[in-house]
Amino acid sequence: MSKRSIILERPWMKHFPDESRTAQFPKMKVYSYLKETNKHRLHHTALYYYGTKIKVKTLIAKIDEVADAFAALGIKQGDVVSLLSASTPESIMVFYALNKIGATLNAIDPRLDANSITRMITSSGSKMLIAIDMSYPLVAKIHNDIKQEHIVIQTAATSLPPIKKFALKIATSSRIPYGVGGIMSWETFIKGAKDGVAQEADYVGDATAAITYTGGTTGFPKGVMLTNDSINATAFNFIHAGIVHKGGERFLGIMPIFSSYGLCCGIHMPLTIDTELALIPRFYPLKMGEYIKKYKPNHMIATPAFYEILIDSKEVKGMDLSELYTLGSGGDSMNEGLEAKLEAFMKEHNMRYPLCQGYGMSEVSAAATFCVNDRYKKNSVGIPCLTTTVGIFDPETGEELGYNEQGEICMTGPSMMKGYFNNPEETANVMRLHDDGKVWVHSGDIGYIDEDGFIFIKGRVKRMITRPDGHKVFPVIIESAINALPAVVNCVVIGVNNRDGVQGQWPLAIVQLADGVGDPAHECRKIFRLCDQTLEERGKPVGVIPVDEIPLTGMGKNDYRALEKQYKEFDYKTLNRGSI
Asked: CA-CA distances (angstroms) from residue 344 to 132, 312, 335, 575?
């Protein structure tokens, strides 16, 4: 069997039912797909927001009203509008309303610094800003620099009933000079809808529907241009994935709208598969257990770091979670140690289906592979999505590799981004034309495909640590071994510079220990000895260091960059038996 046959055979397709294989990809705008998939369930609940239920019919009507309000202010097809907010109902309305008229959402994390936000707004050509009231002090600081024609301030309270609205407004009140410098309230913005009639734009598949931003691990965050087709592809793939669910079940929405993962998988997808999307606009990771207990979701997605917190949450100890059907994991790689812990947690809490691991990146609208129900293999991130083709290529020669051969994971299909906004060089580096005439997204991740079409991640090209002797170490292998230990809550392995002046780095393990563990230094020595006994000679850490907490990025991923910066010049030779 030739290596070429993997892509030609697409072995993962055998896992899809016939009706999925013949399903027609939606050639329509994101707004239109929302309406099309909900046309027979207009009276079902679309959003659940702090006890308030917003039906599909009401949501669509409000989206149309927001589109009219944009039209009244002169926003038209091709314009860019920035959103500096959390996942509130109004933020969702803004996204779909802009898509209706053919404008682009520029989605920005309000937790970023003023310089980054200013650059994201001005470089996009944004004409208008929608901002959450809690971010107003920052908006006031950059007001003169961003030069927006209009600035609309929304609150998290708008969609709440009067009593709850009053309480939340008191809690988040601030002195905002409405009427000055183009600043207006959300209510004033909406009142203007009576003076505008939104012209619905024609469908253009590669029209930029949204710009989201990468984590910026290689410099300033890059703007990922998501299109009508790429965002719809993610929803379409999950509609036809065979997820066990029925109408009206609850989907817990904790991923923010300003990320590709949140926008595509956490908002558009659940709103198209007839689930009730419970929004948590201000998510606190340490409250994971509290959210599960309070909202009783049937489906959810989160990052591995959030699930680590859930495992140790006292709120769910002894709780029956048999109605939580889909526990989806993505946004970051999950090592084998954590997966084993999570499997034990799920069994202990009577969960019916295995972990739904997935894999993707912002550049492919967040999702490229998935495990669903019985389509599952231990330590695998699943099979490619219905419209996605995954191939494994030699990172040096570009040759396609065969089954079970490790190489760089590449993806192609309609979920691909249009490119990085105003960054053709980086776009060309990630999106490359192959000999088959197709453009493929190069992930920078190392993995392989087995004969059944399941994908296995083995490490990250950029996270690979090259020792002074030239041996390459993948941190995930060490992290998996250490994370499997009951005393460990989280572990990150980074490279520290060689102290002898020779080029190369050594792997150093940073661990967060569980509450109640005795002497941290003693525990780290035990972990070091375990690594010494179980890992191959050149794949061992030079030390194990305890910290109170592993830092997380705003997206809930382990912040490797922060640790690398902190320990870059760390002298591992000062360690006593590999730990302190």
From this structure: 40, 12, 15, 34
